[in-house]
Design a protein that fits this description.
411 residues, alpha+beta, NE0471 N-terminal domain-like, Double-stranded beta-helix, 13 helices, 29% strand, globular, binds fe (ii) ion, TauD/TfdA-like, oxidoreductase
Amino acid sequence: MLGALRRNLRPALQRTRLLLCGRRATQTPRTDEMQIRACAATYHLHDDCLALNYGGTQMHFNYVWLRDHCRSASSYNSDTNQRNLDTGSIDLSIRPDSTAVEDGHLVLTWPDGHVSKYSLSWLAENSYEVKKQSAIQPRVLWNSDIYKNANIPSSNWDTFMSCDDELKKFLQNYLLYGIAFVDAVPATVEATEAVTRRVSLIRETTYGRMWCFTSDFSRGDTAYSQLALDRHTDTSYFQEPCGIQVFHCLRHEGTGGRTLLVDGFYAAEKLRQQSPESFELLAHVPIRHEYIEKTGNHQNHMTGIGPVLNVHPWNKELYLIRYNNFDRSVINTIPHDSVQQWYVAHRELTTELRRPENELWVKLTPGKVVFIDNWRVMHGRESFTGTRQICGCYLTRDDVLSTARCFGLQA
Ligand SMILES: [Fe+2]
């Protein structure tokens, strides 16, 4: 069967067609030359894929993929953006009977007579070749000077709570820099909850929905002390670490306690440039973080497994860093002769993270709420004296990004 199909395709395989906005290439362009050049598309039918050259990019589309991604009403519901087609019913050796480019669309007719039509721009936008060159989420990586010189404005409570444009600006800053601030928030747990609910759903954890802590050692975690805390990501011991961390200092009668913020992706990209082998090792060796708590009514045993650096495999974009030396558990997922190299790589990353020029120190005062991308930006604090009351919560990453996308932001 496959042989017969291939024989039928052979004449087509030997043809490469050039079309200009639905006209044959032999026609004389009558409109602006640049415009026509931008619309030019050539395609070539190979045994295992359709090659399309459009907008200066050579792309390849598997035939089953093309049938699976048909945008016709019987195959796809454009209202719900859900697939109607049963992918399990597609012949895995399927090939189009005929192929054409018409009016900026690729048109395929399949052996059962079904016609699929794809806009060339949609194909380009969804091709692997374009996706592997583009970031899912554009970011500005920063050290202390870069962030300060950018002069990112904080949002103000009143406008933030009432104006969607202000929320959109806030989210754009948050996506680009991994941190964003809202000022003049009433210094109460209720107002802090309200300001976070403006952005997303709250992620309830073992620490509660909204948490509020002082240095009373009420929980079995060093956060509940007056000690300095080195830079770290939170809840690295969750299978999916919390996406966003929110802090609001409601009151502090004493000294010290500044908050430390470090862009983990800035440091990781420095490592990728200087020591690509170390970056690769940290991106591939799974390690375990663990949290065991046995205090009063709190009985918890959490474990999360994953590499320190997490990158999308198709475009090598960093999307998650797990870095918490307090909660990193026993390393027993790599053989002994790889452990030394892992420690070398971890030290190189730590050196970058600890460079003083990468440290952004912020004094959180009552009214200033900070939102931190816990998958990217590390936080820590200096030791303090006196009573310091901090409240906050974690937000669900999916909902924050969903809010941003609904505003048309790229996330
Ligand atoms: Fe923390």
